[in-house]
Specification:
This protein is mostly helical. It has one domain. Helices cover 82% and strands 0% of the residues. It is built from 13 helices and no strands. Helix 2 packs across helix 10 and helix 4 packs antiparallel against helix 12. It is elongated, with a radius of gyration of 27 Å.
Length: 287
């Protein structure tokens, strides 16, 4: 919602104040389709050159994420704590053999199936199931620090892929002012080809050419750049859930008491989405 409000405020303040100051919006609007076509077409072409189909799809997803907001909220972090806590409880009380059916086929597991939103996140489910599978295969003799290293590498690999669309958006933002100059230069070339025209016509042509530079800068710093920053913040915020799962598994392997394990995971959640102490422990006791 805030992204949409921001776009409206930006357009009103830029074009509204320009019009109130006596500026002729007609010149801008006349040049807008051509200049936008050049800049937008060049930007799309550059993206196609530098990315494959999957990366372009992810880029569109990142732009959509700016308007949809974060994937995970307070309840989802609570659910992650409950899910992994239940798996830890089975491992501790019933042993690796009892845990194995749940991690071998999470979609068929009644424990995983109780959290359908988390189950849709393949990276999260693989992180939990594969890490616990290591424990099952080794019959519980693994060094917790070694498991933590493996989980850290898995999270790092996933984050590198997840953050790539935001990086691509920032790269596009950095390129847009230069693409605006390209459009402006072409406008100047067109103007020079009509140098024999009267000053009124030449002035309009030069004004249209300058709209290219204006659009490139406006798109870069008013739209795409802020979208890249917002997408990065949202992706990094959602990534916290992977660290919560890791915290629960590793602390359990260290043999810490369950209240300490759960509280360490709870406090690793950002304050905006952090469930309260009583809510978490009441929910855990109810399982």
């Amino acid at each position: 919602m805030f992204a949409g409000i921001g776009i409206v405020v930006l357009l009103v303040m830029v074009f509204g104040i320009f019009a109130l100051s006596g500026g002729d919006l007609g010149v801008v609007l006349h040049a807008l389709p051509i200049e936008m076509g050049i800049i937008g077409g060049a930007a799309v072409g550059a993206l196609i050159i530098g990315n494959n189909g999957a990366q372009l799809k992810a880029l569109l997803g990142a732009m959509g994420k700016v308007f949809k907001g974060p994937t995970y909220g307070k309840q989802d972090f609570m659910d992650c704590i409950l899910l992994v806590s239940q798996l830890n409880k089975i491992l501790k009380s019933d042993g690796p053999v009892a845990l194995e059916p749940h991690i071998e086929d999470p979609k068929a597991s009644p424990i995983f199936s109780a959290y359908p939103k988390l189950l849709k996140d393949d990276a999260l489910i693989h992180l939990i199931a594969d890490s616990l599978r290591l424990v099952v295969v080794s019959s519980g003799t693994l060094d917790p620090y070694a498991v933590e290293d493996v989980m850290n590498q898995s999270i790092k690999t996933h984050h590198h892929e997840a953050i790539a669309p935001a990086n691509n958006l920032q790269t596009l933002a950095d390129a847009l002012p230069a693409l605006g100059i390209v459009a402006a230069v072409l406008g100047v070339v067109k103007t020079m080809g009509a140098i024999d025209q009267p000053p009124v016509i030449l002035g309009a042509m030069i004004g249209s050419a300058l709209v290219g530079t204006f659009l490139g800068v406006l798109l870069a710093y008013g739209f795409v750049g802020p979208m890249a920053g917002r997408a990065r913040a949202l992706i990094e915020g959602d990534a916290t859930i992977y660290h919560v799962a890791k915290q629960l598994i590793i602390a359990n392997l260290h043999g810490h008491p369950q209240p300490l394990i759960i509280e360490a995971a709870r406090t690793s959640v950002p304050h905006l989405n952090q469930p309260s102490f009583s809510d978490v422990f009441d929910a855990v006791r109810g399982r």
